[in-house]
Structure formats: C-alpha cells, structure tokens
C-alpha cells in the first residue's frame, strides 16, 4: 500500500486557505477589540500580527495562533512550515517567541505515523528557534489542520506594529515572492524537482531576524506577508498609517523557480480572490507585477517601513532585505501605486 496523498485531504493550500478578505471583514464586523482595554494594547482593529497585553513591568506579552491545511505531501515539511509560519507572527512584531502549543486536526483515515511526522517537523523548527513546544490540542477532523498558538515577549521600545509607517519610509522585504505559485504547481502535479525543492526551502526559512529588527529605531513598522499576498498586507499597513505607497515592480524579489509559472499564469485560485478584494485601492501601471503582488505566501517574508536615512545601513546588516518601494503621502485615500 502506497503512502497516502496528504494534499487530497484538504481543499486549501497553506496560507491560501484563509477566508477571503471581504468575507473576513464581514464576519468580524462588530467584534473589534480596541486598544487600551483591560491592559490590551494591541487588539484586532488594525490587522496586526499578534494581540499584545501590557504586563505592567515594562514588558508586553504577545499572543498569536496560526494554522492551515497542507501545501505539500511531505508531512515533516508540512509541520515544519506551519510552525515556522506561526512563529513568524511574533517575529513580525519585533518579539521573542517563548512557548508554543500545537493546534492539530488529523483525519482517522490517515496513518498516525504520518501525523507524528507533522509533529516532528514542528518540534524541529521550535528547536531551531529556541521555543518550547509545550503542549497542544488534537481532534479527529475531516481535513488535516496544523499550526501553533505562540506566546512571546516584547517591550514598548521593540514592539513593531502595522501602523507606524511614515511618508518617505523605504519599503523592504526579506524573502522573495512566488510561494503560492510553486505550491499551486505542486498541487496540480506540474512542478519539477527544482520547483519542489525551492518551495520547501522557502517554507522552512525562519523569520528570526524580526527580533533584532524590532530593536532598530529606524524600523517604523513591520508585518509578514502571508495569505493575502504582498499587496494585501501592504495595504493593511497603509490603511493603519494613513499613507499611500509605491511599489517598483522591477525590483520585486522573485523565487527564480517561480518565474516560468508566473509567465504561464500558473496561479493559485486565491491570487484572483486577493486581487478582487483590493483592486479598487491599486493603480496598476505594471501588469507583469500582478502575479507577484497577488500571490498568497505561506511563511512569507517580513515587510518593513524604514526611515530613509537608515535603510542602507539596515540592508548592509541584513543582506536578505530587498528595497521594493516607498510610503507616500495619502491624497484622498491610501492608494497603492504599482510601477
């Protein structure tokens, strides 16, 4: 008997299984947790990556939860990617992750040994990050779902929010784009070995630099790029800060193995879903950038707003950072210009 096809048990794929942006907005209407409520200094009002609680001793407690369906058939890689993606929310706010608990749904039809591989992958990522995988909760569900609830710490000085961008700030991105296209090709059975390996490498690359970036006062705002794509998460920063922005399409970092997929329009379904949700806020002057700004990322890179006088020094210190645009003054409303 062959190894079961993990992907056949889930209709989504990684962070692409998120609810569509408009559906999420409708569902959450009226459930906004405002800041400064019972020591909650960051709620869900501005789409930040974590909720934040003031411990009253000069430290902030960070809390997040993130889980998704498989995007690969390798159970170890799936568990690793889901863990890395969840930990990224803490790093994306300049925090230090301390402890995690697993959130795990596993269909009875799938071998328990495969489920153990999911957990082993998550444990390995937590080991690399110096985070205790301390417990969790499991259910017998129809689809495999795996992720982590993560607790971390930051200080008022190191915490980075979506809302801190200022006109003139440089936009930096820490990882190349294209994960969603690679995952779509994988799921459709058309990815070659190089594309599969590139997908695995990107999924497992940790965003640990976020903790150090949080200590840099030139970094005014930070988030990570996941299921809503580069444009979706950049628009969240723009709305929160009341800024416009411009993206230089030719400067977008791209996973080389995904370039042919973009040219052939091998796009995940959720790329179109993302575009439909925010196209009214975008002035698109570079059609070739469309696949890259709409592509849903799983464990995507950190997206930063950086003071212009500090950008070059930061790029020298963190060579993986790529300059892709700048924040601008908003005119009548925040508009993302893609050139």
Question: Would you write up a description of this structure?
Answer:
The protein has two domains: 149 residues, 2-Layer Sandwich (60s Ribosomal Protein L30, Chain: A); 177 residues, PurM-like C-terminal domain (Phosphoribosyl-aminoimidazole Synthetase, Chain A, domain 2), CATH 3.90.650. It contains eleven helices and 13 strands. The longest helix is centred in the middle third of the chain and has 18 residues. With 339 residues, the protein is of the alpha+beta class.
Structural class, judged by helices and strands? alpha+beta
Low-confidence stretches: none
Provide the number of structural domains: 2
Q: Can you give the helix content as a percent range?
A: 25-40%
The CATH homologous superfamily of the largest domain is termed PurM-like C-terminal domain
Strand order of the largest sheet: 8-11-7-12-9-13-10
Distance between the termini: 52 Å
What is the average of the pLDDT values? 92
Overall shape: it is globular
Helix and strand pattern: HEEEHEHEEEHHHEHEHHEHEHEE
CATH class of the largest domain: Alpha Beta
Based on the coordinates given, report the CATH architecture of the largest domain: Alpha-Beta Complex
């Amino acid at each position: 008997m062959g190894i079961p096809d993990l992907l056949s048990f889930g209709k989504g794929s990684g962070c692409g299984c998120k609810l569509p942006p408009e559906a999420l907005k409708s569902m959450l209407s009226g459930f906004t947790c405002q800041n400064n409520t019972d020591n909650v200094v960051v709620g869900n009002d501005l789409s930040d990556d974590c909720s934040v609680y003031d411990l009253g001793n000069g430290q902030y407690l960070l809390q997040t939860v993130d889980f998704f369906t498989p995007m690969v058939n390798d159970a170890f890689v799936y568990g690793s990617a889901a863990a890395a993606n969840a930990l990224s929310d803490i790093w994306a706010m300049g925090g230090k992750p301390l402890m995690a608990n697993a959130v795990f749904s596993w269909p009875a039809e799938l071998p328990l040994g495969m489920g153990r591989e999911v957990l082993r992958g998550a444990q390995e990522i937590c080991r690399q990050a110096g985070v205790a995988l301390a417990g969790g909760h499991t259910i017998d569900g129809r689809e495999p779902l795996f992720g982590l609830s993560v607790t971390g710490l930051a200080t008022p000085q190191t915490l980075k929010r979506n809302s801190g961008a200022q006109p003139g700030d440089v936009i930096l991105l820490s990882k190349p784009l294209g994960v969603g296209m690679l995952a779509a090709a994988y799921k459709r059975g058309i990815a070659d070995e190089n594309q599969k390996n590139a997908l695995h490498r990107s999924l497992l690359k940790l965003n640990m630099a976020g903790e150090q970036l949080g200590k840099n006062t030139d970094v005014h705002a930070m988030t990570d790029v996941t299921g809503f794509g580069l444009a979706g998460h950049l628009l969240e920063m723009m709305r929160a800060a009341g800024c416009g922005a411009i993206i230089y399409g030719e400067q977008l970092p791209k996973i080389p193995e995904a370039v042919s997929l973009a040219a052939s329009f091998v796009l995940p379904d959720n790329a179109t879903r993302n575009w439909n949700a925010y196209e009214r806020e975008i002035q698109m002057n570079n059609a070739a950038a469309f696949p890259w700004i709409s592509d849903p990322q799983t464990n995507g890179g950190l997206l930063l707003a950086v003071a212009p006088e500090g950008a070059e020094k930061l790029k020298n210190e963190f060579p993986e950072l790529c300059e892709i645009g700048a924040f601008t003054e908003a005119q009548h409303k925040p508009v993302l210009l893609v050139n």
